[in-house]
Design brief:
The protein has three domains: 112 residues; 87 residues, no CATH class; 139 residues, Heat Shock Protein 90. It is an alpha+beta fold. Helices cover 61% and strands 15% of the residues. α6 packs antiparallel against α7. A hairpin with a 3-residue loop joins β7 and β8. The radius of gyration is 43 Å and the shape is rod-shaped. This is histidine kinase.
């Protein structure tokens, strides 16, 4: 490449001025010396615009020499008899050198502007690409590929920068030897401009690392807040749902155990039935707690698979077969309808939705299914609506029910949510299980 540039410079500064005067030489009587000087300056200007100032200066000197050699008497010598030619050649030389200097400065500024534009474009694409990545290792790899391609160098990444590495070749992510992000070293020494660009690019990488760290911390805080919310909801449900049957059992058993209270056989049997019924309720609550524990364990190893909705509904109903004997479900789901998710967890969630609709409803419910798909994910939604059997209590101590907590946990594992809306004026309830499957 350098040899080609060298030969091109020789051709522009030496050969072309000679060719120009040789082309004019046969018709030299048609031109004055001043005309020939102007023609030579045209070529000097073109060379200055297309090449550097050094080549343009050499072109000027060669042009003056050629003009003197071919067009000034005595011909084919550098002797000048007429003093006015000295002034002409001096002016030609000065003008040519000035043109070379100005054109060189203009070319240098244009090259600087192009380089700045290229650097700005590269930094923009780098920042956009880094912000689109969520892992620090991926950001570092994208940075290394982009900068190496732009600067035509090789970068080596070090988790810990070697102490003996020359400082002139070390470029740290945040300028500290003990940086937790590590650093880069260049394969060759860089000039001031490329060094400045690399330091600027590394600062962009550092900001991307910091943003990623903040996003991860924010996500961790959100997860922790969600866990606290779920824990509080669970404790609230247990507090309310266990207090009532325990109070009934304690009251009935204290009456049976109190020697000062005389109960006939009918009253004693009634208290025994109360104890039995409330014990069954307690047993159901403990089953819910065990089911919630199972859901949490299964959610740690979520298994995505394609599921037939009719199969999902039938399996969910089978899980609560005894409770849903008198429960009637209306649905318009066809055999072709399907979804994606963990079939066991979705069965548990849907079974709890059926149980709540049967327990608190009028024995009839409607199930609807819908989905939306885009380039990033598929959103699924199962909704159960039913009329309430009676008005719900409005006590502030009312529990939300472990069944709803289980549905919410299942939805969270599937990147979704569970909502329960109760319209007391219309005496209706709507439970919605929504989740999303992200495209790989």
């Amino acid at each position: 490449m350098k040899i080609k540039q060298y030969l091109s410079a020789i051709a522009a500064s030496v050969l072309m001025p000679i060719l120009i005067v040789l082309a004019i030489f046969p018709v030299r009587d048609w031109f004055t010396t001043t005309d020939i000087v102007m023609l030579q300056l045209v070529w000097v200007t073109l060379v200055a615009l297309r090449s550097n100032r050094r080549v343009a200066a050499i072109t000027t000197l060669v042009s003056v020499a050629c003009t003197d050699w071919f067009f000034v008497t005595p011909y084919f010598t550098f002797h000048i008899e007429n003093i006015e030619y000295v002034v002409t050649f001096a002016v030609m030389l000065i003008v040519g050198l000035v043109i070379s200097q100005l054109a060189g400065q203009l070319t240098s500024k244009i090259n600087d502007i192009k380089q700045h534009a290229s650097n700005t474009s590269c930094l923009y694409e780098l920042a956009k690409g880094l912000n689109g990545l969520d892992e620090i290792d991926s950001q570092r790899g994208y940075f290394q590929t982009t900068v190496e391609h732009h600067l035509h160098i090789t970068l080596d990444w070090w988790q810990v920068i070697p102490v003996k590495q020359p400082q002139s070749r070390c470029y740290f992510v945040n300028g500290e030897i003990d940086s937790c992000w590590g650093g880069f070293t260049a394969s060759q020494s860089l000039d001031e401009a490329r060094s400045a660009f690399l330091n600027t690019a590394i600062s962009v990488l550092y900001q991307a690392h910091e943003n990623t760290k903040l996003r991860q911390q924010s996500a961790a805080i959100s997860v922790q807040a969600e866990l606290e919310r779920a824990k509080n909801a669970l404790l609230r449900s247990l507090s309310h749902d266990l207090r009532t049957p325990l109070a009934t059992i304690m009251g009935a058993s204290s009456m049976l155990a109190d020697e000062n209270i005389v109960l006939n056989e009918e009253m004693a049997a009634e208290q025994a039935r109360n104890i039995f019924e409330q014990s069954k309720i307690l047993n159901e609550h403990f089953d819910k707690v065990m089911e919630l524990s199972r859901v949490n364990k299964m959610g740690e190893d979520l298994q995505w698979q394609s599921i037939s909705l009719q199969t999902l509904i039938s399996e969910a109903q089978a899980r609560r077969q005894q409770l849903l004997i008198n429960f009637e479900l209306t649905t318009a789901i066809s055999e072709q309808d399907s979804c994606q998710g963990d079939i066991t967890l979705l069965e548990i969630a849907l079974a709890n939705m059926f149980e709540n609709a049967s327990r608190y409803g009028n024995g009839h419910a409607t199930l609807s299914f819908s989905y939306q798909q885009d380039a990033q994910q598929i959103d699924y939604q199962l909704r159960i609506t039913n009329q309430l059997a009676s008005s719900l209590p409005s006590s502030t101590d009312q529990g939300v029910g472990l069944g709803s907590v289980i549905c919410d946990v299942v939805a969270k594992f599937h990147h979704g949510r569970f909502t329960l809306e109760i319209n007391e004026q219309q005496q209706s309830a709507s439970a919605c299980l929504a989740w999303s499957k992200l495209h790989d």
